[in-house]
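Page 37, continued from 36.
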């Protein structure tokens, strides 16, 4: 499987911890300070965090769906998840959709 390098969504490519959790100079935990991360292709934008890499409603932790990368790997042809209607989010709880895992799409059978 091929990989592509993208800008780290969590730190927006700065390589620094965006929330200064440890110290001002702390490196980004997602990319290890490189400002870039690798994702396996094919990858799509993470709908759960809207490609920000930040967990919605708890804006200090990494998105658990994309691990803070802002992109998620999908397998082959996909279609919109019927359960969350492509949002990746369970409406009442705000948690990632259990059917698609928060990606908003599921594999076409
Ligand atoms: Zn980063
Ligand atoms: Zn995400
Ligand atoms: Zn879903």
């Amino acid at each position: 499987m091929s990989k592509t390098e993208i800008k780290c969504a969590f730190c927006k490519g700065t390589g620094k911890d965006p929330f200064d959790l440890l110290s001002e100079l702390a490196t980004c935990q997602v990319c290890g300070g490189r400002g870039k991360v690798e994702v396996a292709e094919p990858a799509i934008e993470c709908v759960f965090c809207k490609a920000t890499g930040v967990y919605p409603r708890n804006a200090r932790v990494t998105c658990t769906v994309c691990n803070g990368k802002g992109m998620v790997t999908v397998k082959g042809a996909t279609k919109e998840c019927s359960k969350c209607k492509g949002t990746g989010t369970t409406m009442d709880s705000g948690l990632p959709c259990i059917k698609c895992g928060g990606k908003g799409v599921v594999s076409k059978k």
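The mean pLDDT is 92. Flag for discussion at group meeting. The beta strands are 3-7, 36-40, 43-45, 71-73, 78-80, 105-107.
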